[in-house]
Amino acid sequence: MLAVASLVLASTTPVIAQEARQRWEQMCQIRKDKLDLILPQAMRENGIDMWIVASREGHDDPNAALLGDGYVGDIGYYVFADPGEGRIERAAMGVGGAAFDQCPLYDVRKSPAELKAYVAQRNPRRIGINIASEIGTADGLSHSLHERLRETLGPDLSARLVSAEKLVSDFRSRHSATEIAAFARAGEYSRTIAERALSSEVITPGKTTTGDVAWWMMEQLHKEGLGNSFGIPSIYILGPGPRGPVSGDHVIQRGDLITMDWGVNFLTAYTDMKRMAYVLKAGENAPPPGVQRAFDKALEIRRMILDVIKPGITAGDALAAVNSRVAQTPGLALGRYDDPVADPKVSDVVIGSHSVGDLGHGSGPSMADFNPLRMTYTLQPSNFLSIELFLYTPVPEWGTRKIKIPLEDNGVVTERGLEWAYPANSRILLVK
């Protein structure tokens, strides 16, 4: 009877959601560290005495998740005032909710109607607001909220409003130890799911489509309670035949070289990575030698990128340094994405090592010419970078057409240079 009673009790006792609780506690610690350790430096370096972040129900600012989230009704403000030294004073106005209250981050809780009096009492010289020319995460203030903020503050205080674009970039792209730990875990999820996807566990040659692989990966995200960086993963064929539709109905065949591009979201961290796999033909135990040589050449170029990364220089200067080295290497030339030159004696190189972490394409210093403003930003310890490159080179076994060899993995800038956040790709995966 006691055993039966125990079974009944066990079946009716609520199961404590350990993983959900642990993730919430990790998120709370990340927010505390972000506001305690990162925000003061970011505000003072950028000469911002006060930072006002406005949200409205149904229109959260992109930074709300880092600032504590919380429920906002009509309008809410997260306000950060710098007393000149020590910690930044933090005020939440019109923001609340159980989860918000259980992770205490704010010194002052007020109504949005008290904003003007609060700002006037602290008398800041420069008030940062989220309007930006390039960085989307720093451009969350809508036109109507901007107008309302100016009306609320009045002409004198409104004259002190300035763009917080660089502040937001620094706040989001510099990281505490808790954020680095979350980023590394996101990387492990990313590579583990990707490498399982590009294996015989998922792929049956002659049957499985590139779309099947992509949706299998999406299912793993669902099971693990993870988000993604870019939507459905991009799965396509590099050679020897045509690439076919990305993540579509192309049936994977023996002899195909497959690539995958995707990213995982865990807590505040987002990744962006690639993996490659070769589908073995009967009697093969390795990719064609030309494919392996092309992959090895891409690894050499990745080493060139790592050699130039160090804190204290701009991302643009780092990119210029590696581009110069590529241009001076016999047989290599700087190229254009997916538009290689016809000369088979030249291998085209495209480098786009962008910021990552707070999004798949992040907000910080970026070694990529598609982020011109972020190329002017200085690399700092704890910045996250996606080391991304494309090599276009002939594979003799496949004729004269150049194939694309993409490499991409994520790391952390340290005083020593760039350190991987998880084991980076070092091989072509094999599908039997």
From TrEMBL:
It comes from the Bacteria. Residues 184-415 form the Peptidase M24 domain. It holds the Pfam family Peptidase_M24. This is Peptidase M24. Gene3D superfamilies: Creatinase/methionine aminopeptidase superfamily (3.90.230.10). SUPFAM superfamilies: Creatinase/aminopeptidase.
